[in-house]
């Protein structure tokens, strides 16, 4: 594994816990964090065949990620800096969204601006009781720039996304759960445990079927491709897999399936 200046990595029985580690800046996303996440998801994790899934969380008790690093953003060269940062940010968030293993955001505190967008790029969100989501960019004279205007309405609906984006209001953990932004609400400090529990449960399922489910569900949100075609093709490939034969045999023989990911 590479050296990661802004991330802490911990392996828990095949589940990688990735902690964004800039508590002094409420884990704001600076260039280092983006570069670290890019190397992790593009280069290191694809080599790990034993990986069951990834949990992303923030260091300390106060914040998941309080946004893009406003101070660094202001210091960038105005001609190219914003563009480079924007391109990298979008690439990293797409990589997370399209990762073939489950990625869960364990939201332990503020998930604002780019932090809320990072959480939404993950496949699921677990909110601790102290979690506060929000897209406050309008207070800075900006709009969400890492996919927030697209992912938020898909998760909570157009009307609610309009309201939260235009007011910049924060969303409590219970409200996030009620409107479909969070999959679960748990006691503060239990976010990572809940995320690990879900990943361990999914790790008992057929790995190819899990990966193809992620692809097909993602395709439902991509208007440039026909998600039904993606589903049909994925289904066809899975019917030819060894795991499908094993899963069907295990059902008939009333035993637990032993999936190999082939
Ligand atoms: N960036 C940099 N530093 C931050 C930060 C941030 N987003 N959020 C907090 N900090 C720093 C504070 O400056 C403070 O540092 P010191 O002053 O102690 O050095 C430290 O973290 C602790 O914060 P506070 O003292 O403010 O703590 P409080 O408990 O009083 O308040 C808060 C917590 C989360 C309510 C407050 O910190 C806050 O409002 N933070 C900013 C939240 C925010 O507006 N987030 C959205 C940022 S805009 C782009 C695409 C997307 C974006 C940008 C570019 N491109 C396409 C190029 C995204 C933009 C955003 O995310």
Textual characterization of the structure:
The radius of gyration is 19 Å and the shape is globular. It folds into two domains: 7-202, Alpha-Beta Complex (2-enoyl-CoA Hydratase, Chain A, domain 1), CATH 3.90.226; 207-253. It has helices at 31-44, 70-75, 81-97, 114-121, 148-156, 158-167, 173-178, 191-202, 207-219, 227-239, 242-252, and strands at residues 7-12, 15-20, 53-58, 63-65, 102-107, 110-112, 124-128, 132-134, 171-172, 184-186. It has a six-stranded mixed β-sheet, sandwiched between helices. The chain has a four-stranded mixed β-sheet with strand order 4-6-8-9. Helix 4 (114-121) crosses helix 5 and helix 5 (148-156) packs across helix 6 (158-167). By secondary structure, the chain is α/β, with parallel strands linked by helices. Bound molecules: 4-(N,N-dimethylamino)cinnamoyl-COA. 4-(N,N-dimethylamino)cinnamoyl-COA binds next to helix 2, helix 3 and strand 6.
Number of domains in the coordinates? 2
Distance between the termini: 26 Å
Please provide the ordered H/E string of secondary-structure elements: EEHEEHHEEHEEHHEHEHHHH
Low-confidence stretches: none
The CATH C-level name of the largest domain is Alpha Beta
**In percent, how helical is the residue content?**
40-55%
Kindly report the name of the CATH homologous superfamily of the largest domain. 2-enoyl-CoA Hydratase, Chain A, domain 1
Shape: globular
Return the average pLDDT rounded to an integer.
Answer: 95
- Tell how many strands the DSSP assignment holds: 10
Biggest β-sheet strands, sense, barrel: 6 strands, mixed
As a percent range, the share of strand residues is 15-25%
The count of helical stretches stands at: 11
**Helix vs. strand class:** alpha/beta
């Amino acid at each position: 594994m590479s050296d990661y200046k802004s991330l802490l990595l911990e392996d828990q029985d095949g589940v990688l816990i990735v902690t964004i580690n800039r508590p002094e800046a409420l884990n704001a996303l600076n260039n280092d964090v983006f570069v670290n996440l890019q190397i992790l998801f593009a280069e290191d994790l694809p080599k790990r065949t034993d990986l069951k899934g990834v949990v992303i969380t923030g260091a300390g008790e106060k914040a998941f990620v309080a946004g893009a690093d406003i101070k660094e953003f202001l210091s960038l060269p105005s001609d190219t800096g914003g563009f480079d940062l924007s391109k990298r940010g979008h690439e990293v968030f797409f990589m997370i969204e399209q990762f073939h293993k489950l990625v869960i955001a364990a939201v332990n505190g503020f998930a604002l601006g780019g932090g809320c967008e990072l959480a939404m790029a993950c496949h699921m969100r677990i909110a601790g009781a102290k979690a506060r989501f929000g897209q406050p960019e309008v207070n800075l004279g900006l709009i969400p720039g890492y996919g927030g205007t697209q992912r938020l309405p898909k998760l909570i609906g157009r009307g609610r996304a309009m309201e939260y984006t235009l007011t910049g209001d924060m969303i409590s953990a219970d409200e996030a759960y009620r409107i479909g932004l969070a999959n679960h609400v748990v006691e503060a400090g239990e976010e990572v445990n809940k995320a690990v529990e879900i990943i361990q449960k999914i790790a008992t399922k057929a790995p190819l079927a899990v990966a193809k489910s992620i692809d097909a569900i993602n395709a439902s949100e991509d208007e440039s491709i026909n998600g039904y075609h993606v589903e049909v093709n994925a289904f066809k490939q899975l019917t030819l897999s060894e795991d499908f034969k094993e899963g069907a045999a295990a059902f008939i023989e009333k035993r637990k399936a032993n999936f190999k990911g082939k």
